[in-house]
Amino acid sequence: MTTAETKSRTTERGQYRRPDAAQRAARYATGTGTGTSTGAGATTGPGTGTGTVTGTGARTGMAARTGPATGTGTAAGVGTGTGGRVTVAVYAEDLILQTGMIHQLRMRPEIELIPEAEADRAQVSLVVVDMVDDQTVQLLHRLQRNTSTRTGLVVGFFESGALQTMIECGVAAVLRRGEADQDRLIHLVKAMANGEGVLPGDLLGKLLDHVSSLQRTVLDPRGLTLSTLTAREAEMIRLVSEGYDTAEIAQKTSYSERTVKNVLHEVATRLDLRNRAHAVGYAMRHGLI
Hints:
By secondary structure, the chain is α/β, with parallel strands linked by helices. It is built from eleven helices and eight strands. The strands form two sheets. A five-stranded parallel β-sheet has the order 5-4-6-7-8, with helices on both faces. Strands 1-2-3 form a three-stranded antiparallel β-sheet, with no helix packed on it. Helix 8 crosses helix 10, helix 8 crosses helix 11 and helix 9 packs across helix 10. The longest helix has 19 residues. The protein is elongated, with a radius of gyration of 37 Å. 18% of the residues are buried.
């Protein structure tokens, strides 16, 4: 058998095939793969997670070939759900203030702005005004009736006399407009949603002075306290909570049994309580005893 015949038969059996130029070039080409990433990412706010990539692999030095490949990846995004977001309704005395405040809050994913028609379901109501005038007071009183919403005041000029008005209207937080950048606004909203109060330092000092003056000049002369109970009433309810009956309370407080009964009846009537047990529960829940 000649040499040519041997090469021909070997080629036919598929044991040896001399690659042509195109095949030699393909072996050293760099393949490019595409794939689809699936994984667990954040549902609310930015987050990272791991995923699996399946698609065409990328190889250097060998021809590109198709097959599954796995690896870790990063998923980041902002959730579209409302879980963890604070619902906010904005009230302003003019369109410019309204637009500016909404623009500041809309940019933050932790805030959900509520349209005016649904404002009653907002967790936080922000009132934006130049100063606290009669119209502002009317609005604050109206918002106060919605016990599920806490009210914050963003004000340009805060007069000293407005502090009493703020207390009477149930305002939970105050921020001066000159200090109302985006971060402070978000802090204010989150604090109110968590049941906290926010005041500028100087207003907090004035508030404490006001409370102290009220206690000293109005309540003390009448034997009253800020707890809505007199010292005598609080002591008698405390003794009730410890299991003492009317006679024992009278002996410990040096009052007559009739006085003890009258005092406890007065507390129940004033606070709309059904009985002594209800009075004890009320006092404990509100930290009065």
